[in-house]
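Lecture notes, unit on protein representations.

Consider one protein chain, 287 amino acids long.
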Amino acid sequence: MAGRANKNKDGFRRRTTGNRRLPSSNEERLVRLSQAHHLLRVVTTVTLVICAAVALFILSLKGYEKMVKSPKLMLKTVHIVGNKELSEKEVLTTGMIKKGTPILELDPAAIAAKLAAHPWIRDVNVQRQLPDRMLIEISERTPMAVIALEKLYFVDDEGFPFVAAPLSAANNFPLITGIEKQFFMSHKEDAESLVKLAFNTMALIKNSAAFKGYKIEEVHCNTFSGIEVEFAPGPLRINLGYGNYNDKLDRAARVLATLKQQSKKARILYLDNDKQRQLVVAKLAGR
């Protein structure tokens, strides 16, 4: 039924609700009480679920801790592959690895980061092998020569001086000179390019039959004059300058062969004349 409009005492019209009865204050309290009870049940249920989850987490954590400390999961064997310069003891010490440690407490990534900081190690891979083994695969840097930068350093095939070398190392490796330490630090890419140029020249010489009886003792690198190579037996020095190394070494070989036929020895060969590239100037031994 539609509501009826009546006037109140002030003369304003008001809408009545017909036969519908407005809820009493008691009924409103009952509704609010029911809603409060429902909210309490929800909160209680959620609280019980959270408590159960926490309890399960604590139980699982205790179970995990018990499992971690299990004698079956203690590190017993460390298998190291690829180490030549580094001993097993050095690898274990650098990686801070102790046998008998719970293997699940050892972080392979953290161990690999410690090992990678060692100057002899170029690359490393660390794996846990449950239940009680660890595999460490190492790729070491290979010294190609010794470079003089105020003191001696081993230098790898990328032209990077990676660790100090003893004085005796110069007897077993070619010595690279002519690059100042300050230049290497301030122009690293240029300096490494010079070292790689020295390596390429040494490779050409080693692959040449004409220099089979010669040992490379020193390669002098100079940003202005280029490459000079000292040989033994000798003494013999070949100034190659920059570029056309194959051609220059062939011409040097022919000159050395001609002098040998004449029972003569060269002390210095100059092949760095850019204006007269076919010219070879020889300074003979004993003169």
